[in-house]
Amino acid sequence: MREATMTGAFETLAVTERDDRTVVELHRPEARNAINATMVEELHAVCADLERRPRLLLLTGRGGVFAAGADIGELLERGRDEALAGINSRLFDRIARLPLPTCAAVDGYALGGGAELAYACDIRLATPSAVFGNPEPGLGILAAAGACWRLGDLVGRSVAKQVLLGGRTLDAAAAERFGLIAEIVPPADLLDHAHRLLDRMARSAPSALRLTKLVLDADGPHPLADDLAQAILFESEEKQTRMRAFLTRKTPS
User: Which DSSP symbol is given to 67?
Assistant: First the structure.
């Protein structure tokens, strides 16, 4: 099978191309793979390629972390216009709508925007150290890039409210119990298991996979509702206070 690695082509991603799949490793280890504007732009480029030539997608993270959230320093500077632009939500929606199935292989933290990126994938595998959570309200905002509606579809409204309103995190065992992940896999075997899953998918007819995915996925009032709510919160003083406190590691008064 032909394989080409294009690490040098991206600043925040390591991308490996195979004939039937693309493997994307989030690669900002100094920031625990936090999703910043550059990563968003580069993931859009990956999506554009997968839309032109549909292939399976495997997403994972470098250094024992999937993605510890969105870049708080960048979020602090975003206001109403950026919220309405849906910078992260449009990307994750694009990933969710890719023609062929997607898989997230999660090791370690998948928090905030990192969790929402994993939720946007069709199937998730995880290691025993995986942790999913959405702490956005603690920063004065909401999880506006898909969690407020995708998570309920994945685990049910009650569990989604525990995560989004109650601040609960889901470890690997809970995530498997609630159906968020398909399997718990030892870290050393995570990518091998993910590739075996994609191998099974690759044996199916691409057109059948594509149409099955279209039929399974249903549209709702999102992400517009998420963006409108986020636009209000992005302008709040509470958001500024809490994010500045986060960046300076102080507790807001």
Answer: B
